[in-house]
Design goal:
heterodimer, A: about 750 residues, alpha+beta, Phosphoribosyl-aminoimidazole Synthetase, Chain A, domain 2, 7-stranded mixed sheet, about 25% strand, B: about 230 residues, alpha/beta, Rossmann fold, 9-stranded mixed sheet, two-stranded antiparallel ribbon, 11 strands
Chain lengths: ~750, ~230
């Protein structure tokens, strides 16, 4: 099969370009056979190789004192104290969820859980960051995804404790499903998926291998079009029960030292798991015999076996001679295990079908051979600017508040999280619904806070600033529980980077993330990139394309959506804070100062029907000062509650404090000093602000502490009653607000 | 007092029950594997929540055939304490140790949230630590927790006073709005006639410590542990 004879259809099937094919032939000094071409196709897909984003990703900070494992492994890991490590990662399952929402989301959850298990950690929590088109049109995606997340997480017994959900037209054809898993392991038990030790056995455990999910990774690396539903076989089917058994069996592996490494089989199945595991050890190779792979169906070819993305499978590297010990552990859980090959020192992945060699490729060609794609970015037209003077003055803040509380982007998420088991594990001490979730670490006083955040409207208006906001808001959500931000996992969801304006968005996004993570000293220890989140009607050729987009028509592409998953630690979870007001008579205060930050705000969208302006500027020195103040005040026991001010601004945050606490607040009229506008004071989205409540006697000390941190703090009012009132401006019963807030998703 | 906690493949509340028994109550804990054939001297056997065998076919339908279930049936016949929570309740119904069945929630959705329960029997080993008609807060977490039984079975349950817990509002009133899953008569938990086999959908092991949002569940665990202490003392 020379370049002349390998037809373009064949290349398109494995999502390789003619140039990439040329590189392969050159490196191999021969044309690859069909199996090899398929293997290279999946590993050189954007999803596996990061060929478009790799160079940029190096700019992200990934080191820090607490970091035990940065990017490059199944998941990142940081030390959290008392000998414990938190292992965590976020990953996208966007394309499968667009085609088959329930299974796409379910297997996304299953996949990220296995990444954490592979590090030797017990998964303790799940979070999901979701984006859909507006309701009711996108209800099919929304319902399927929520049911799929619940279906998998509830069954496997890992609590789903957080996440976020936004609706925007740009996700109507391309919903986003990003799943994050957090696990715990003793620092000295942290595992790495390295195929060490020539002669050690490679054991495949868990589900049998079927034809499902073949080409999933390549599929995730092209745009969607009308033919995409024909790709439904590329969406895998999840079996959470099997994964629960796999999870427990892998936890039992800790009782033996016979295991060298554990690696998840995810995208690109056996091909990537073996190649990656060997690729982490210089010079290592692997030899596998696909006839030894337990199969679900007859007649599978070598190609099928190597590319299958059947779920709930793991690769275990076992010390030679101790396979029976490991097999017994899996047998206890009624799981199949089979030795399918061994570790070599020839730097090659050699695939046998009994005695016949069906593929033989250098490991480094598979894992690191994809030529980086040199793309160029061009900044698009700037978004429409915002002229504040042209906005009509605020008429009735109370009515605006009701409409904002009912907005699908701001309303209560309870209808969603009550469908997820968020309590199993007896560790959830701050449940979903507020800022970050907080889980206690049993046997210690440590608490682990976790959140996901991204305001993609900001990213649309200014990708760099938007990415900075995502990090800053995640940090504030962690801080609002009393925990200090520790580390980040990120999921960069963008459109087709072959378009210069999208590549520019990618560059800007990464620059923004890098800046914010450095400023807040939170390294990014794991992550995932999901590109090609755009779609247009079938081009007529019948296949997805990766070339430039045709103009016009119903083409749609997503806003850059860099979802930030962050974890943080509190030394004593007894000192934790929640968002809801707690005591009648407590003072309610606004920490941080407000500016005319209406650009890109939810207020502007809901009340003025426009998306315009720049997102608020961020001063990271101020962010840090405010965060430190909140943490110091929490440690000193001065605060009764704390809540981040974000989307919807101060008044929406204050209303949430009331609704979550079941308690109203009485405030004197809000009379902002010029140049601050009244609408911006109520609904502007200036970062670096919290609503806190404190007993009146603690307030002087709190104010002193604020002065010492050079942070502005102002009294808003007093907690109590069943209304929210700004004297002479508006007065709303909590019941009316609850009605609006709790039914925002019912449309 | 020795608690046995049964582990089926797919069980997930085993560790939470174990945590409460061992770390909060301070009683003796023994995990029992579904393939075991004896109860290892346990005084109270808990069938915890989860999706035993994946709950394929029908919740609890496969679990009832586990080798250990035969032992548990005989243990119950001898008057031993058997406590099914959530999936455990479903399994006890499938196994015929309790009447009726748990069907899909009326909302057709999974529900994980706090509920209030009125305790209607306090003469039982499981509830002796509760006050007469006490209202306790206990979370639920299930997709199939709607209690159903034939009218004749239901009226027998009521006549015999076999309903132990009913969903109620915070004031203890048994009203439809407090029913999270469509259970007949707001039933959240029932006992067998003899008073030694309890099944309940809510999860008392999730509310045995205040930091988890409430500690009413501890009353049930302490009742069982305390009963044994009384027996030993007498």
């Amino acid at each position: 099969m020379s370049l002349d004879t390998v037809d373009s259809r064949r290349l398109r099937e494995v999502a390789l370009t003619p140039e990439e094919y040329r590189v392969i032939v050159e490196k191999l000094r021969r044309p690859p056979n069909a199996v090899e071409l398929g293997m290279l196709g999946v590993l050189w897909s954007e999803h596996c190789s990061y060929k478009s984003s790799k160079a940029l990703l190096r700019r992200l900070p990934s080191s820090g004192d607490a970091v035990l494992q940065g990017p490059g492994e199944n998941a990142g890991a940081v030390e959290i104290g008392q000998g414990w490590a938190a292992v965590f990662k976020i990953e996208s399952h966007n394309h499968p969820s667009a085609i088959e929402p329930y299974q796409g989301a379910a297997t996304g959850v299953g996949g990220i859980i296995r990444d954490v298990i592979a590090m030797g950690a017990r998964p303790i929590a799940l979070l999901d960051s979701l984006r859909f088109g507006p309701l009711p049109a996108s209800r099919h995606h929304f319902e399927g995804v929520v049911a799929g997340i619940g279906g998998y997480g509830n069954c496997i017994g890992i609590p789903t404790v957080g996440g976020e959900i936004y609706f925007d037209e740009c996700y109507a054809q391309n919903p986003l499903v990003n799943a994050m898993c957090v696990g715990l392991v003793r620092v000295d038990r942290l595992m790495r998926a390295r195929a060490e030790g020539t002669g050690n056995s490679l054991m495949l455990v868990g589900a049998d291998t079927g034809r499902d999910g073949i080409h999933g990774a390549s599929f995730a690396s092209v745009e969607l079009d009308e033919s995409s539903s024909e790709r439904r076989p590329a969406v895998q089917v999840g079996n959470p029960f099997l994964e629960k058994c796999l999870l427990e069996a892998c936890m039992d592996l800790a009782h033996t030292d016979a295991v060298v490494a554990v690696q998840d089989l995810g995208a690109a199945g056996l091909t990537s798991s073996v190649a990656e595991c060997a690729g982490r050890v210089p010079g290592a190779g692997a030899r596998i015999d696909i006839s030894l792979v337990p199969r679900r169906e007859r007649g599978m070819t070598a190609y099928d076996v190597m590319l299958s993305e059947s779920q709930e499978r793991m690769l275990v590297v076992v010390q030679r001679g101790r396979e029976a010990e490991v097999e017994r552990i899996f047998q206890t859980w009624d799981l199949t295990s089979a030795v399918i090959g061994d570790v070599t020192d020839d730097g090659h992945l050699t695939v046998f079908d009994q005695t016949e060699v069906v593929a033989r490729l250098p490991i480094d060609l598979l894992t690191d051979g994809a030529p980086p794609r040199r793309l160029t970015g061009t900044s698009p037209e700037p978004p429409p600017s915002l002229h504040l003077d042209s906005l009509p003055p605020l008429v009735d803040a109370g009515q605006s508040l009701l409409r904002l509380l009912a907005s699908p982007n701001l309303c209560s998420r309870r209808p969603i999280f009550r469908r997820y088991d968020h309590m199993v594990g007896d560790s959830t001490v701050v449940a979903p619904g507020g800022d970050a979730a907080l889980l206690r670490i049993k046997g210690t006083r440590l608490g682990l806070a976790m959140t996901t955040d991204c305001n993609a409207r900001y990213c649309h208006l200014d990708p760099s600033l938007g990415a900075q906001h995502a990090v800053a808001e995640a940090a504030r959500n962690i801080v609002a529980t009393g925990a200090r931000p520790l580390a980040v996992t990120d999921c960069l969801n963008l459109a087709n980077p072959d378009r210069p304006e999208v590549y520019w968005e990618l560059e800007e996004t990464i620059a923004g993330l890098a800046h914010a993570c450095r400023a807040l000293e939170v390294p990014i220890v794991s992550g995932n990139v999901s590109l090609y989140n755009e779609s247009f009607p079938a081009s007529g050729e019948g296949g997805p394309t990766r070339s430039g987009r045709p103009d016009g028509g119903s083409h749609s592409s997503i806003h850059p959506t860099p979802v930030v998953g962050m974890i943080g630690v509190i030394d004593d979870y007894g000192r934790r804070l929640e968002a809801g007001l707690k005591n009648e008579g407590d003072f309610v205060l606004l920490v941080g100062s407000s500016h005319n930050d209406l650009g890109g705000s939810e207020f502007l969208k809901v009340e003025h029907g426009t998306v315009a302006g720049r997102p608020p500027a961020i001063d990271f020195a101020r962010e840090t000062a405010v965060n430190r103040l909140i943490l110091a005040a929490a440690r000193a026991g001065l605060l009764r509650s704390a809540h981040d001010c974000a989307d919807g601004g101060m008044l929406v945050a204050l209303a949430e404090c009331c609704l979550l606490g079941g308690m109203g607040v009485r405030c004197p009229a809000l009379r902002p000093e010029a140049p601050l506008r009244l609408d911006a004071a109520f609904f502007g989205e200036t970062p670096g602000r919290f609503i806190v409540s404190a007993p009146s006697r603690a307030t002087p000390e709190l104010q002193t502490l604020a002065r010492r941190h050079h942070v502005e703090i102002s009294l808003l009012g007093m907690a109590g009653g069943q209304t929210i009132e700004f004297e002479g401006q508006f007065r709303l019963p909590l019941a009316d607000m609850r009605q609006a807030w709790e039914n925002g998703l019912a449309q | 007092m020795k608690f046995g906690v049964v582990v089926f493949p797919g069980t997930w509340s085993d560790r939470d029950c174990g945590w409460v028994i061992d770390q909060v109550v301070g009683a003796q804990l023994q995990y029992l594997w579904h393939k075991d054939t004896d109860l290892k001297g346990c005084d109270c056997v808990i069938l915890p929540g989860g999706f035993a065998y994946g709950d394929y076919l029908r919740t609890g339908a496969i679990a009832r055939f586990a080798p250990l279930m035969e032992e548990i049936g005989e243990f119950a016949d001898r008057g031993g304490l058997v406590w099914g929570i959530c999936n455990g309740f479903q399994i006890l119904c499938e196994a015929g140790l309790l009447p009726g069945a748990l069907i899909r929630n009326a909302s057709l959705e999974y529900r994980c949230e706090w509920t209030s329960l009125v305790v209607e029997r306090t003469d039982l080993a499981f509830t002796s630590g509760c006050a007469e008609r006490e209202v306790i807060r206990v979370p639920i977490s299930h997709g199939e927790g709607s209690y159903f039984a034939e009218p004749a079975v239901l009226s027998r349950l009521e006549q015999n006073g076999q309903v132990v817990f009913r969903y109620c509002d915070a004031g203890g009133r048994v009203v439809p709005s407090a029913n999270p899953n469509g259970s007949l008569h707001n039933i959240a938990g029932i006992i067998n006639k003899r008073g030694n086999v309890l099944g309940m959908m809510p999860h008392p092991e999730r509310c045995a410590e205040l930091e988890l949002g409430g500690a009413d569940g501890l009353k049930l665990f302490r009742s069982v542990a305390g009963k044994a202490m009384k027996v030993l003392a007498s």
